[in-house]
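Quality-control log, excerpt.
Job 1 of 2 completed; input and output follow.
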Amino acid sequence: MPAITLYTVPQCADCEAIKRLLQHHGATYTEKNVRGDPEALAEMQRRANVRIAPVTAIGEHVFYGPFDEQRPRILAALGSGTS
């Protein structure tokens, strides 16, 4: 499975939902809090060209936006499709 990085901010419902989805599918990921880490923020901006979390990077695929928008793309990148 490709490396997964999840860029988050504290108290973010969409961030928490993505973490639950990844965990449900047995995916291991690295979480980076962009609010307290300027390097993580700069990395997220380079990869996704956005300034707002959550951003999910699975290999070369980068998704951003609310959980409902990211969910089908994350599932496809994980090779699931449903659930």
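Job 2 of 2 completed; input and output follow.
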Amino acid sequence: MSNTVELTKENFDQTVQDNDFILIDFWASWCGPCRQFAPVYEKAAEENPDLVFGKVDTEAQPELAAAFGIQSIPTLMIVRDRVAVFAQPGALPQAALDDVIGQARGLDMDEVRKAVSEQQAKAEQNGE
């Protein structure tokens, strides 16, 4: 049984709103690296039952892929407290995925939010 949630444009916002920590795998069935990454992702989902593991089929959900600027797949994204804290294309090996999850767990989200708001303020000052 899979521990992953299929994310669609209908349930994406609610899933991100309802969960403090979500991993998102952007993938497609025709993508070889995506198929190689799938069992690694499933294993991580089994080993981290306290986290939400979502999958976005970029073929079925092109709007979501476009909204996040996904240009190559697989792309892994991690969202904590509604802030994207990690996004990287490419199939990660198990050890690298475990490391990324550990790093994301260790983030001080107050510091992350502070850095994000400082960047936004700087962009506004520069007229961006």
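Post-run check on job 2. Residues 4-125 form a domain with the Glutaredoxin fold (CATH 3.40.30.10).
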